[in-house]
Protein 1
Amino acid sequence: APAPPPARHLFSDPAEIEALRGNLLAWYDKCKRDLPWRTLAATEPDADRRAYAVWVSEIMLQQTQVATVIDYYNRWMQKWPTLQALAQASLEEVNELWAGLGYYSRGKRLQEAARKVVSELDGRMPRMAEDLQKLLPGVGRYTAGAIASISYGQATGVVDGNVIRVLCRLRCIGADSSSPAVIDRLWDMANALVDRSRPGDFNQALMELGATVCVPKAPLCGECPVKQHCQARRRKLFGKPAPVPDVEDCGVGGCPLCPPATEPWDSSLGVTNFPRKAAKKQPRAARTATCVLERRGCHGALEYLIVQRPSSGLLAGLWEFPSLPLAQGLQEEKQREVLADHLQAWTGRPVAAGGLRLIGEVVHIFSHIHQTYVVYSLPLDGDVILDPALSPSRWVTEEEFHASAVSTAMKKVL
Ligand code: SF4
């Protein structure tokens, strides 16, 4: 087994832990933001309903800012106020409501999990974090801990991006914060710190601190309720680690939690020396030709053809303008030809490459793809028979387009 890290990286003094919990909770009671899921979790007497509300919010908040989530969350809860209601929804409805929020598999898995609770678990949510994680699709360790602590009062910690930042600073953890060794230590720490009588509030307080005070670039250390427990701040103010018994060992014998010897503390960064991450992989570049086919509908309004993507993979099940991935370095003339061939399948008639009008390019960054859409348009006359043997397709007005399950990238294209 690896040697335990030096004491400066841990919380081992019960009096300090107690003081930190008290300070953090008192600050949270006074300063927390009013958020709809918090209000619901605090006022809803039924624990399973609370759990559903927390679950929906936590899934939406993965990878998405609070300000963006609020509107989606409110509309979602209005449409499907209970797990049972969500279990009866269609995937199309879920995708429509989720449109624009990104990472679409989240909504799909939320709905699958709701169906599973209703059909296999007698409509009752698992109550312990371990069971939530084991039994519900899309529920990872963090979400399980959040639901179990906030809704069911289980004294279990949570570790998300905000908690990682706060804990790494509190304990000067400068090793790669995405490495399994560091993540394991942070979970141990979160489980040891969580307040036994108010676990849900404590976890939310730690995350709230990371979101509003201990922020990535310019943390507000002067206003921080746990500043007296913060090793990073002490180091910034006094220029050296806190005087704890075995601090001399730290860093000398290859401490698993200290910054690597090749990247020591940088005094110009202060507390933002922590956390540190291995360099992110650059997103891969991809180009896709997409064509806005338009016609005059029977009421004279312009209509656009949209087609449905496959039910797995990126943007699964969402609708888009007919699109075609392009090989790197393909010349414009060739692009037109391959796109014209592709469109022929949708329109059921020959499409002249020269008739395609190049509109411009739209760039959209997915988490791992730097996607450039090369946008063409093509007006069509007469009736176009859509082939039911192909993927589902339909004509929509602009208003219908915006109400459909289309990605933000396609809205930019339009
Ligand atoms: Fe973060 Fe500063 Fe508070 Fe330390 S004192 S936890 S760095 S805000």
Protein 2
Amino acid sequence: MATRLDAFLSHRGFGSRSQVRGIIRSGRVSLAGQVCRDQGEHVDGNVVRVDGQIIVEGVASATLLLNKPLGYACSHDPNEAPLVEELVPESFRHLTLETAGRLDRDTSGLLVVTSDGALIHSLTNPRRHLVKRYRVAYSGKLSYHAVARCAKGMQLEGDPNPTLPAELELHGEDSDSLSLATLHLHEGRYHQVRRMFAELGGEVVRLHRDRIGGLELPSDLMPGQMREIRASELSRLTATVD
Ligand code: URA
């Protein structure tokens, strides 16, 4: 994990990137025992000192759970701000974190943010058939065979292969007269829920993910909150059986 010296210090409370660059250029910072005036130098696990004081290295890796609020993008592009990475607590900002799959800007709910590439692979690999549960509010009327078409797998425009079998449950209406449904997917394609509903004759108005594998969105995690996953949650997360 390549962490630049300016990012390392900025994430440990030495100020903005430009303030930190001033500190580095003034010669107050040493890396592996040598004064370092290069803000782009990589820390690579070496000891960093500011004014002779060792700056403690943070945790080496982390897996975090986020209750993603509406409006945030799963991206590192500042042009797409606000970004999910802005919600990462200070003590994890020195890590290179990625989301395991993506939720659209206008989708809320459970998102895993981790420095563990193997975990991302196991959560997103369609061959594992890990279930992701979506709560959907939609307008329009779904085709008569909607449940059966989801169960069979359907062709989506632009995709060479049909979707994997998915379970659709239809519920009643909410107070805004939107129809409600739950969709269990075992893969994660681009805008998959919205595209499936469009194919079935509906339009998704609200979309919320509240389960991945055997892990429900924890009830103590308010929208916008991100915290480290607990050991018991991690084993539920990767469970393939419901
Ligand atoms: N399907 C979508 O259409 N959007 C999401 O954010 C997740 C699944």
Protein 3
Amino acid sequence: MARRKIGLIGAGNIGGELANLCVARRLGDVVLYDVPAKMEIAKGKALDLGQAATVSDVESRIIGTADFADLGGADVLIITAGVPRKPGQSRDDLIGTNLPIIRDVASRAKVYCPDAFVIVLSNPLDAMVYEYRRVLDAPRRRVVGMAGVLDSARFAYFLASEIGVSVHDIRAMVLGGHGDDMVPLLSNCTVNGVPIQDFVAPERLASIVQRTRQGGGEIVGLMGTSAFYAPAQSALAMAEAYLLDQKRLLPAAAYLEGEYGLRDLYLGVPVVIGKDGVERIVELALDSNEREMLTKSAATVQSIIEVVKRS
Ligand code: APR
């Protein structure tokens, strides 16, 4: 069987870590693309990773490039092009810089690899993935945004640490926009099926929910730039679900056409990812508080999308 081709748009912190993970997981050949000014970094990372793969005995062709034609025929594109947050910035503050970048990437992708399954990470996430799909005019099953897997991982990590159980046993899902009003669900959060409320007192739960909402900002405050290991790992899980037809149920930013009473926006909801991309959008029975929070988060996302539409 021919090896699969994974295109990474943006060879920065997340792009580089993703390239490493794709090779380590033997997912296929990797193309690390960046702007001409960063082409040598992309080429250097590709060379370094090719040599690492030699040590770990992985057959993978890894190239760095500033020529979009090299992405032709890619099965998956993972988009991290853009600038990350600096301390004190919100994700929405990035829109002025990242909107032209996402438009540039989408218009090139439309020419060279219009049929790839696309996972967008650039922020502000929900608006950037909306714009990417709009420019491409692609079916919604082929363009998805990565935020929910990451936000849920943060939530699960904090809960596991609080309770003193394996992260493996925490079932936690965060829906809504990738911003401060995201919606960590409590109604279906469990330790292997046992309600989370049996383990954590309400006031501690409230503080963990709040820390989850600001989980990205906490890392920006520590490092001066945004997280990259967990975002890369989260995007990898989604790419793997597609490439290996795993039919995984994951929270992700999907284009809504009436689900949850919402339409014409991207928002974090549970989806099933398999060989056809976003194969299903799952509508959960949320409690009234969660539904209200989701509606509020959707309104925030919608206001950013309106800015994008006017720009
Ligand atoms: N085409 C391709 N790559 C681009 C373009 C473009 N038009 N414009 C910028 N880039 C590249 C930059 O040159 C840089 O190498 O995107 C890369 C981004 O890498 P980093 O600055 O290291 O940022 P990173 O931490 O990887 O985050 C990227 O993902 O999570 C989001 O908020 C984050 O929007 C940010 C993005």
